[in-house]
Design a protein that fits this description.
globular, 287 residues, 12 helices, alpha+beta, single chain, eight-stranded antiparallel sheet, 39% helix, two-stranded parallel sheet
């Protein structure tokens, strides 16, 4: 082997991520790695017909709701927190666990790699602006990676069209601790908002969510429920998981009202109708 070829091979090997690269760039507690591996190992005993999404989601029931759990690392690092959750981190943790489990990956390192793939644009952690801050971006990017897919048929119940108009972060940097500290990130955030603005997606209007027959055709146990809204500059107000019951779909989510992860006793239809700003739901399935 020539020295030239040897140097090329060594350069390629050094460029590959290692276990230590991921661990050194992660903020977590020892209990997190223990919990992740315990859940992944337990899921190996599940039958093919059992819903892995709800199996994992129910492991978090009762865990406290805490907002902004990702806003603790500057510069940006991968934050793993199974002890305190907001709606997005619950969805990300459960999705990462489910995708690992479907592939029979059971190590904490496997989970970390999957979480990076889900949370960051193109699956690469490259600073604060590489995080997928808006859920429409999250859906779009993870669909392109083949990790999830968005359901937009049949009609009914997918009778409405959402025109995405993002701008909340760019207009309100003071509401985000990292953006307040780093105004130099704003230009990139605003470009990302502009890139998504104008896209159209089909969703289920909340007037249709009470239609049991239509919802049974469109929504499965464990689907990600993304609640659309009419708030200025926002696309999705809240996220959680679908739980099908005889009276309709219910929501399993990290609730700021209950201050913990819960399965709502009321139906998703009732939940949506209690909030004027909620307009309906988008449905995302895991691959």
């Amino acid at each position: 082997m020539t020295l030239y070829i040897f140097n090329i091979i060594m350069a390629l090997l050094l460029a590959l991520p290692t276990h230590n690269d991921i661990y050194c760039n992660t903020v977590a507690q020892p209990d997190d790695s223990i919990a992740i591996e315990r859940m992944l190992t337990a899921a190996e005993a599940l039958g093919d017909g059992e819903c892995r999404q709800l199996f994992f989601a129910r492991q978090f029931l009762g865990r406290p709701y805490v907002a902004h759990t990702l806003e603790i690392a500057d510069p940006e690092q991968l934050v793993v927190n199974t002890r305190q959750l907001d709606c997005t981190t619950l969805v990300e943790n459960v999705t990462a666990l489910t995708l690992c489990s479907r592939r029979h990956l059971t190590s904490y390192h496997d989970f970390l790699k999957m979480l990076v793939s889900l949370r960051y644009r193109h699956g690469k952690l490259d600073g604060y602006v590489s995080r997928l801050h808006y859920f429409s971006e999250w859906i779009d990017d993870n669909s392109s990676k083949g990790l999830v897919r968005e359901q937009q048929e049949p009609n009914p119940p997918f009778k409405a069209v959402q025109t995405i108009r993002l701008g909340f972060m760019g207009a309100n940097p003071d509401k985000y601790e990292i953006l307040s500290k780093h105004p130099e990130f704003l230009d990139d955030i605003r470009l990302q908002e502009q890139a998504m603005t104008g896209r159209k997606v089909k969703y289920i209007p909340k007037s249709m969510v009470s239609n049991l027959d239509a919802m049974r055709k469109a929504v499965d146990d464990g689907d990600i429920i993304a609640i659309t809204c009419n708030n200025t500059g926002l696309d999705i107000a809240h996220v959680g998981f679908a739980v099908r019951r005889s009276d309709g779909v219910h929501l399993l989510h990290a609730s700021s009202v209950h201050k913990k992860v819960v399965e709502e006793k009321s139906t998703l239809s009732d939940y949506l109708n209690r909030r004027k700003s909620f307009t309906g739901v988008r449905i995302i399935k895991m691959n």
